[in-house]
Specification:
Number of strands: 13
Number of helices: 12
Shape: globular
Number of domains: 2
Strand content: 15-25%
Order of helices and strands: HHEEHEHEEHEHEHEHEHHEHEEEH
Distance between the termini: 51 Å
CATH superfamily of the largest domain: Alpha/Beta hydrolase fold, catalytic domain
Structural class: alpha/beta
CATH topology of the largest domain: Rossmann fold
Helix content: 25-40%
Length: 489
């Protein structure tokens, strides 16, 4: 726990001393709009996501901390530009963290609970079973609780005190939590039949120090062979041939990105499982409305949905889900990263999933306009030996032709070789043998000697993640308002 030595002024106290002449500001009613909650004695009844059509109301909070006077800009619907943190910006106290009650009731802190993928991984892990350096710990024998300890009980007070004591360090670190949110069926708004849908979330150290800083949300959408846990596990084998041996160490990657971008607010990073009956109203409804509404109300209650850039980095069938959600609401995402898009047979089909010619033209026109204003971008990554390479490239070509992506210029190519043609689309190849290269277009990256498996994700993730984080940072810095709730007319 942090302590204050008598007679020694903390950064926060020095800042307060500078604004003592303005202390009368604290009497105004509007000051409560700027402060986080410092009272956690009673927990509000849990409300199921989906019980109303609107965004969940931000909880009423009590302010006990002195908050600096800030001249508020006119309400333009945009976030103010994001700058570097001020040298004397106060460090938030643990009492100001808005998510603690949810963490106690519905999360496992610094651990990953049982999923099918994690169980496979654990069988192969051997001496690496402790997980990545610094966590999170794999916990194959533990499932997310239906509900954690209730407020007012001794077990609740003990769990809350333990979380705060463990996280409120002299130098705070990032953490990963495995959580669940209660989601009600759309046809039963009274909450009957609600399911607890899991997600894993990365909270950067900067968020614990400055929970009021504007920040974006990055969604990690898993493919059919992965799960939310794979994003945070350690890799065991990189050949991609053995199911359950992968791991993408997202916490370490995000910590490295945060360290190399000290003037920016790292996003919250949230991983979800692939499509399954665990999603009360389906995975598309979850990532389009239920999850972002919950994340903003729980972790970013000072922001609105319209003020929060929302990106997705998606793999295989998760990329298919992301594109279908984008078609349902073209203003949903700020950034869309697609790795090894599943797009043949039962996979994504533009002719089926993007509507008829008129609907596609309208969708592409809206996406092109958003991109021109810095509110949207999209990028492909795929292995050159992937059986879905052709349909990925065809969609990229259509988006480039429609002006959604930069004009398709010749790629930079290297490591070219020949590969036998394996037909995966209705369009015949120009020859029975085609070139197979590592190729890079402005918005399309093709990886040499890589097929549709985990090795493609390993190769693609560093550049794909960096691209996505930079797009979100630019949108946040310029105050872009990319998200609207619900589909457009």
């Amino acid at each position: 726990m942090r302590s204050v030595v008598p007679g020694a002024a903390s950064i926060f106290e020095r800042h307060v001393a500078r604004i003592l002449p303005l202390m009368t500001w604290l009497a105004c009613a509007s000051c409560q709009q700027l402060g986080p909650s410092a009272s956690w004695g009673a927990r509000a009844p849990e409300t199921a996501v989906g019980e109303s059509l609107g965004r969940p109301a931000t909880p009423t909070v009590a302010v006990t901390a002195v908050v600096p006077v800030v001249e508020q800009p006119a309400d333009t619907g945009l976030l103010p530009p994001l700058g570097a943190a001020q040298p004397d910006e106060p460090i938030a106290r643990a009492e100001e963290w808005p998510f603690v009650d949810h963490a106690v009731a519905s999360c496992v802190s610094d651990g990953l609970t049982s999923t099918r993928y994690l169980l496979q991984w654990f069988q192969h892990a051997g001496s690496h079973r402790a997980g990545p350096p610094g966590g999170p710990r794999p916990l194959p024998g533990l499932r997310l609780p239906a509900r954690g300890p209730r407020a007012g009980t001794a077990s609740y007070a003990s769990a809350r005190a333990a979380l705060v004591a463990g996280w409120d360090e002299a130098q705070r670190h990032s953490h990963v939590m495995d959580c669940a949110v209660r989601v009600a069926p759309k046809r039963q708004p009274d909450g009957q039949g609600a399911l607890r849908v899991p997600y894993a979330i990365y909270l950067p150290a900067d968020y614990l120090d400055h929970p009021l800083r504007p920040r974006a949300i990055l969604l990690l959408a898993s493919g059919g062979g992965g799960s939310r846990t794979r994003w945070f596990l350690s890799p065991l084998h990189t050949d991609g041939m053995q199911p359950g041996t992968g791991g993408l160490e997202m916490r370490g990657r995000m910590d490295a990105w945060a360290a190399s971008h000290p003037g920016e607010a790292p996003p919250l990073v949230v991983a979800v499982d692939g499509a399954s009956p665990a999603f009360t109203n389906g995975i598309e409804a979850f990532i389009e409305q239920e999850l972002p509404d919950h994340l903003i109300a729980t972790y970013l209650p000072h922001q609105t949905r319209e003020q929060t850039p929302y990106g997705v980095e998606a793999v295989s069938s998760g990329a298919m889900v992301a594109l279908r959600a984008l078609r349902a609401n073209p203003r949903l995402f700020t950034s869309v990263g697609l790795t090894s898009l599943f797009c043949a047979g039962a996979g994504f089909d533009p002719r089926r999933d993007l509507g008829g010619p008129e609907e596609r033209r309208a969708l592409f026109a809206e996406l092109a306009e958003r991109r021109a204003h810095g509110q949207f971008d999209l990028r492909f990554s795929i292995g050159a030996l992937d059986q879905y390479w052709d349909c990925n490239y065809r969609l990229f070509h259509d988006l480039s032709t429609a002006g959604v992506l930069p004009a398709e210029a010749g790629p930079s190519q290297e490591k070219c070789a020949a590969k036998p043609w394996r037909p995966t689309t209705a369009d015949p190849p120009s020859s029975p043998v085609v070139s197979h290269c590592a190729g890079r277009w402005a918005s399309f990256e093709s990886w040499f000697n890589t097929a549709h498996h985990y090795r493609a994700v390993v190769a693609a993730l560093p550049s794909a993640l960096d691209w996505n984080l930079n797009v979100l940072s630019r949108a946040l810095a310029q105050g872009a308002a990319p998200v609207e709730t619900g589909p457009t007319p």
